[in-house]
Amino acid sequence: MKPSVVAIKQQEIFKFNARAKSIPGAINMTVGEPNFHTPEHIKQAAIKAIKNDQTHYTVPEGDHKLLGAVANYLHDKYNLNYDPETQIIATTGVTEGVFSVFNAILRDGDEVLIPSPSFTIYGPDADFNGASPVYLDTSKTNFKVTPSMLEEVIKTNPRIKIFLLNYPSNPTGVSYTEDELQALANILKKYDIFVISDEIYSELTYNFKHISFGNILPDQTILLNGLSKSHAMTGWRFGVVCGPAEVIAQVNKIHELATTSITSITQYAALEAYTNGYDDPLAMKEQYQSRRDALFEGLKELNMECPTPDGAFYLFAKIPAGFEQDDVKFANELLEEEHLAILPGSFFGIGGEGHLRISYAASMENIAKCLSKLGQFLKSHKN
């Protein structure tokens, strides 16, 4: 049964961020969004749309010229082949995409398999739609799902309807090679399970080429992507849901009930991004990689171990031995004493305990300050 909305808890991330913002001068390394501005040509396209009074309803799935541009972009970037007329809808960010897909697919008693640590909306979305989240602890396998652990949990939980895979990952930054994805697909294709593949960080992959699960297992995969991270467009709220036509038709019914359609101005901005913004992510990606390397090396000097991030803009650092291992207490004291805000790993679920998520979507200056403040805190708190 779906729970009462009263039972839903506010996200701990939001409460922690609100506290950090209340402290004057605090260095905030919690933010999961680019610290770049939307490219100028995209802003100008939106301004032009407003001036031309293109401010009316569109069809619920999104303007079909835009959907065609999305299909072309996904084909050119990732060799994906989606029919823009039947296999793509535009959503209010990936957040709405997750909610609409879950609402369309899940029934009371279903289960959703979620590798953990994970982004914080997946479990509550499953709960709210009458399903139960099944968390798969990946902390002992370098924060990746292995084929053996995947098959074992599917066999012991026959009510799993969805496997939710987010890569590159928030919060850990790890991703999967083509061989690793194929090995997972070899397990999944034996079962009647949907793969919801959240690939919002696909353009920010550093160590190898991003391969979409939509290519690996197309008949079972529903792909989520968008422009928030790749084109610094978090506030525009643009996402896409792609997949088999018969599934997308049902998802669009939920999307239609929830939103009618996303804003026309955002759609014109997205059309420009997908048509003329192929290279927009490159300069940002280059800077993120430099920041990643600086932060990674700095944390290593502080004896804070973390997996090498393959993408996104997060490091998931282990609190060193000999220090307070309660990550919530650690993060709160760090904020109080050093005015440095980084998120407790346990906010992201099972396997996150004793870790801290640090965003490097920040300036090099703030990364240096973060490392300095962390060093001071560790020096004063060593047991």
TrEMBL record:
Keyword flag Zinc-finger: no
Keywords assigned: Aminotransferase, Pyridoxal phosphate, Transferase
Cofactor(s) the protein needs: pyridoxal 5'-phosphate
Signal peptide: none
Pfam families named in the record: Aminotran_1_2
Superkingdom assignment: Bacteria
Entries under InterPro entries matching the protein: Aminotransferase_I/II_large, AspAT/PAT-like, PyrdxlP-dep_Trfase, PyrdxlP-dep_Trfase_major, PyrdxlP-dep_Trfase_small
Transferase in keyword set: yes
A single BP term in Gene Ontology: amino acid metabolic process
GO function terms (MF aspect): pyridoxal phosphate binding; transaminase activity
Residue ranges of domain Aminotransferase class I/classII large in the record: 27-371
Family: Belongs to the class-I pyridoxal-phosphate-dependent aminotransferase family.
PANTHER family the UniProt entry points to: AMINOTRANSFERASE (PTHR46383:SF4), ASPARTATE AMINOTRANSFERASE (PTHR46383)
Stated name of the protein: Aspartate transaminase
Taxonomic source organism: Companilactobacillus mindensis DSM 14500
